[in-house]
Amino acid sequence: SPPGDRIATAIRGVQALEMQGGAVEIAAADVTNLKAMRALVDKVTDRHGRINGVIHAAGVLEDGPLMDRDVQSMERVFAPKIDGLRVLDELFPDGSIDLMVLSLLLLNLC
């Protein structure tokens, strides 16, 4: 489907959640930094109460084939995904939230 349709569908999904009393908070922080993420979680819980779900879509885009990358490039690309997931696991231990969605853009690896 055209990109506009996907965006419209996502917007309608957010609106449906909000109509049922839910809240969607979009936030930016260094997901690899436990202190920064803890401050963000505290801010969101102060504003909305309990956090029910997290969508982890952090990433660093460095174009180019995987085999052409050096170690530092690989670390920059994978840190938000791997180290970020470790931080989220620390902040949201098993059973503390209802949903955690992990997003990985495979094009980053090609």
SS elements, strand count: 2
Tell me, briefly, the overall form: flat
* Largest sheet properties: 2 strands, parallel
Q: In percent, how helical is the residue content?
A: 40-55%
- Span of the ends, CA to CA: 23 Å
Mean pLDDT: 85
Regions with little confidence, pLDDT below 50 for 5+ residues: none
Q: Which series of helices and strands comes N to C? A: HHEHE
Report the β-strand fraction as a percent range: 5-15%
Order of strands in the sheet with most strands: 1-2
Calculate Rg over CA atoms.
16 Å
Which structural class do you get from the secondary structure elements? mainly alpha
Task: Quickly count the helices.
Answer: 3
List keywords for this structure.
110 residues, mainly alpha, two-stranded parallel sheet, 48% helix, flat
Write up what this structure looks like.
By secondary structure, the protein is mainly alpha-helical. Helices cover 48% and strands 7% of the residues. The protein has helices spanning 3-19, 34-48, 71-91, and strands spanning 53-56, 99-102. Strands 1-2 form a two-stranded parallel sheet. It is flat. The relative contact order is 0.15.
